[in-house]
Amino acid sequence: MENDRKDNINQLPSPESAEPPASGCEATTKKDSGDQLRLCATLLTVRVLTKCQALKTRSHEEWVPHTKHLVSQTVEGLTIPEGFCPDAKHTKKICKAVLRDLRKQFGGRCMLESVILLQDPVVDTVIVKSMQVHIRQQSARLAKKATSQSLWKDILQVSAFSAGLLAALILLAFIP
């Protein structure tokens, strides 16, 4: 059994052989983007359920299927642009927004914790919709920020090129 584990570990691709993403953490393919979305939804769901004490009060056999169900529902209704890649900081921000939204809808923290434990389909739908809304909002913010950074990068490159060209022309004018 132990040898099987070692063999599986040896079969994993080395970090050096894996191709880096196109730009930073952006996914390079639609599948990678979908994987990033699923990972984000999973982390978000687990974080929300943990903050609501739902995972402490249930057995492993109860909360794992419920979590998988919530993740599948969340991902099912989302279409996120390719390159969606939130980090832990962004997932934490989304979680805070989702919890704030859910506490508001259910009338406070204690009531939210209680209704989540019911595993009611209507409650699950409310949770899923809230997560979807906040994932979309964060995705839009990240896309806007990336576009803005790209624009400034382009402006700086053009400015640097223009300054270099101007300096070269001035030097040529002074050299006889």
Automatic annotation (TrEMBL):
Positions with biased composition (Low complexity): 13-27
Bilayer-crossing regions: 155-175
Region feature Disordered, mapped onto this chain: 1-30
Statement: the UniProt record of this protein carries the keyword Transmembrane helix: yes
Keywords, in A-Z order: Membrane, Transmembrane, Transmembrane helix
Protein name: Uncharacterized protein
Organism, scientific name: Lates japonicus
Lineage: Eukaryota, Metazoa, Chordata, Craniata, Vertebrata
